[in-house]
Amino acid sequence: MPEYLSPGVYIEEFEIGAKPMEGVSTSTAGFLGETERGPTTPCFITGWLQYQRVFGGYFGNDKYLPGSVDGFFKNGGKRCYIGRIVKAGGNPATTASLKLKVNEENALTVEAVGEGAWGTRVAVQLSKGTFSGFKLDVFYWKVSPAELYNPYKETKTQPRPAVVEFFDNVSIEEASPDHFEKTVNGISNLIKVSIKEGDSAELLDALETPSELEYLADGSDGEGAFVLSDYERSAPADDKPGKRKGLTAFKGIEDISIVYAPNAYSIPGLVGSIISHCENLRYRFAILDAEHASSDVAGLDPRSDNPTDYAAFYYPWIKVINPGNRNAAAYASRWVCCRHLRPQ
Q1: What angle do CA 201, 207, 209 make, to 5 degrees?
Q2: Where are the domains of the chain?
Q3: How far apart are CA 241 and CA 53, in angstroms?
Q4: pLDDT higher at 237 or 146
Q5: What's the half-sphere exposure (Cβ side, CA atoms, 13 Å) at 278?
Q6: What is the C-alpha separation between 338 and 260, in angstroms, rounded?
Q7: Fold classification of 28-89+224-340 (topology level)
Q8: Distance CA 216, CA 193 (A)
């Protein structure tokens, strides 16, 4: 009840009856697919430039996710989650890593933020901090140079790194505001730092001479073509808080209202899995496109195989220029579909 503290005439408004139902926003999309690099846990993205900082850009004429996300934002999209897909099964993708050494002894472990061979094109140099602690210089090349070089020293050597990061005055003291968990992990789009078994972080106190610039090693894309399980990631080992990926991770993100995986028909069972995901949650909608290079228009009959009220099917694909290769035309999946994902 309002509290009236002085004499006077007051007007108080109140509603009669049930509050009308609010419309459901369709402005937040969930994209599943391959990216150039980046984490494999879903990441919230609000613009094409942010996507490029986190996941890279166009990287192949048969990699359709970047074009889809670019089209989404160019057509008015504002919010989306990106679920990066990597090989999971018997020969899974692995994460590149590097032991930072002081006097030939392990001090810290640096790992790429996500699995894949892209991590082997990340190079790190350790040196003493300007005022305290230590400094990390991090470089990422989209295409590996013939020989690794320090971009600070060799300013004209090509190709130049696509991403450069540096973190100065980093501390190993957990109570410090400059602790690496606060100043590197979650801030860097390329690496994360940890103290693992066998590491002696105290060695960093004796650091005087900068280390050699070194690539992270042992990162791979795995073996074999993508299969349904790479998208679902429903194995018990993947179903852990903070580590969920793929469609399993999307279940826990309530903001997502539309789910889209470019060229989903090329993965046996994926279309049905996405539709079931939307039907089970009951507030999501699936966007499907015809399989790439489909030409038999009369034979397109998606409803016979997947009758549902929770999906839309789009045909045809459109052709756009791939910014990463000006001489090649890439089929960019679903700019038309991305118009469906614009804020309502």
Answers
A1: 140
A2: 28-89+224-340, 97-215
A3: 25
A4: 146
A5: 25
A6: 9
A7: Rossmann fold (3.40.50)
A8: 12
